[in-house]
Amino acid sequence: MSLIEEIEKRKTFGIVSHPDAGKTTLTEKLLLFGGAIQIAGAVKSNKIKKHATSDFMEIERQRGISVATSVMAFEYRDKQINILDTPGHKDFAEDTYRTLTAVDSAIVVIDVAKGVEDQTEKLVEVCRMRKAPMIVFVNKMDREGKDAFSLLDEIELRLKLRVCPLSWPIGMGQRFKGVYNIYEKSLVLFMPHGKQNEDDGTMLFEDLSDPELDKIVGEQLAEELREEVDMIEQVYPKFDKEAYLKGELSPVFFGSAVNNFGVKEMLDCFVDIAPNPLPRETEERSVKPTEKKFTGFVFKIHANMDPKHRDRIAFMRICSGTFERNTNYLHVRQGKKMKFANPTAFMASKKSILEEAFPGDIVGLYDSGNFKIGDTMTEGEELHFKGIPSFSPEQFRYVNNADPMKYKQLEKGLDQLMDEGVAQLFTKKESNRKIIGTVGALQFEVIQYRLEHEYGAKCSYEPLNMYKACWIKWTDAKAFKDFQDRRRNDLATDKDGNLVFMAETAWALKMAQDNHPDIEFFFQNEN
Ligand code: G4P
C-alpha cells in the first residue's frame, strides 16, 4: 500500500469523560466490533478503583495494565482505528491532556443522568484548544436521566459545543425503546444486553409518519418521536462534515454502552466522518502526514513493570512518512542518531514488534532514559513539535532526601519520574530547595512509593503553601532585572532551566502582574 493509502486507512482518537460515565465500557464495546475480544476484559480493570486512591498495589496494577491498554488498535470496515486511553482519574489529568495531543479527534461520553460534569468540561476544553473534532455519546439511556433537549442545551452551554443530534432516543429508562438514527433514517430497537449485529433490530424508516411506527413503539412514543424529530430539524443545524472537521459542530448519539446499544451507529458514523491523521505544527513549520520523511514525537513515557530491567516505554506518535525498524533517526533534542530494534505495535490484544508504522500510529519504543515528553524524532531535520503542555501545578511540597546515603539514587529517580511527566520539579533560586508540583495529591504518594521501589531512594515532604507556578517571559531586560531584584525569593527554575514565578496566593500573583506589566505570566509551558 502507498503512504497515502496507509494514511487514509487510519483514524486515531481518544475517548474523554468524567469518571464513571462509561468510557471503559464503551471502549470495550468498540473493541468487540473490531474483533479484538481478548483485550476487552482487560480494559475493564484499567482504572483505579473508586475507594482505593492510596492503595499502592492498585496504582502498580493500574500502571501495569495501562501499558497494555494505553493504545488499542483494531480494524473495522477496512480502517485501522487507534484508540488512545486517557486516565479518567482527575489526579492523572495531565497525562490525559498530553495524550490528547496525539489524537486527531475525540469522543465525549456523558452520563444521561449526571449530564456535563467537571472533568468533561476540562477535557472538552483541551480538545477544543487542539481544534479536535468531537462526537458526543450520551450514555446510560437504559436509566432515567435528563430530558434529551435539556441535556443538549447543557452541552451547548457548559461545553460550548454546537450540537447536531444524529440519533434520537425513544423513551428513556424503563420506557426506553431504542433510538431513531437520523443519520441513516432507521429505527434501532433496544434489546438489553444485545449483541447488536448488522441488522439486529434495525429497520429503515424513511418516513416517520408511517403508522407502522405506532405499532412498533406504541402510539404515545411514536407521536413524541415525530414531534421531537420535527423540532430537531427546526432547532439544530443540519449535519455538516466540514463544520465537524473544523471542530465547529459535534454530532450527538444516544445509547447504552453496557447494553452495547447505539454503539455501532456511532462507530459507523465515526468511521465515515472522523479525520485521518492531520498535519501537525512544529516550531519551524507545519508537517504534513504525506511527507515522505518520517517525523514523530513522544507524548507519554511509561516505566517498565519488570523490576529487573530499568527500561521504560516511550510512546511516539508518527506524524509523517514511514517509520522503520532498525533505521537510524535523529533524536533532535539530544542531537544524536538512534535506531530501534524492537519497536512495539499495540495491535488488538497483543503487543508485537513492528517493521514499519505510518502517520497516526503509536509506536512503543524501549528507552533507557533517552526520552522525555515532547521529544521529536526525524530523519535529520531539526524540528520541534509544539503543543505538549506542562500545566501549572496545583499542589506543592518541598521534597527532602530522607536517606543521606542515597542522594544519587534520589536525584536519578526524581529526574526520570519528571521525564515521565508524573509531576514537575522546581528549584528555588535563592535557597536551592527542591519543590515538587503536581496536579493531584495522589502523585506525591506515587512518587514516594516509586522512588523507594524502583530507585532505592527515600524522600520526605514538607508542606508548602503555594497558589501557582507560572512561567515568565520578558523582552525588556531592565523590567526583568527590576522584577528579579524584587521577587528573588519567589523565583525558581523548572527542570529545563526556565524561570518560574512561584505565587503564594492569588493576590500575590495579581500584585506581581499589576506591578510588572512588562513581564508576561503563563499558566502552561508549551513544549
Ligand atoms: P468510566 O470508564 O468512564 O469510569 O466508566 P465505566 O465504563 O467503568 O462505567 C461506570 C459504571 O457505569 C459501571 O458500573 C458500568 O457498568 C456502568 N455503565 C456503563 N454503561 C452503562 C449503561 O449504558 N447503562 C448503565 N445502566 N450502566 C452503565 P459499575 O457498577 O461501576 O461497575 P461494574 O461493577 O458494573 O462493572
How would you characterize this protein structure?
The chain has about 525 residues and is an alpha+beta fold. It folds into three domains: about 260 residues, Rossmann fold (3-Layer(aba) Sandwich), CATH 3.40.50; about 100 residues, 3-Layer(aba) Sandwich (Rossmann fold), CATH 3.40.50.300; about 140 residues, Peptide chain release factor 3, domain III (Alpha-Beta Plaits, 2-Layer Sandwich). It is about 30% helix and about 30% strand. It contains 15 helices and 33 strands. Strands 28-25-27-26-30-31-29-32 form an eight-stranded antiparallel sheet. The chain has a seven-stranded mixed sheet with strand order 2-3-1-4-5-11-6, with helices on both faces. A six-stranded antiparallel sheet has the order 18-17-23-14-15-22. Helix 2 runs antiparallel to helix 3 and helix 12 crosses helix 13. The longest helix has 17 residues. About 0% of the residues have low confidence. The protein binds guanosine-5',3'-tetraphosphate.
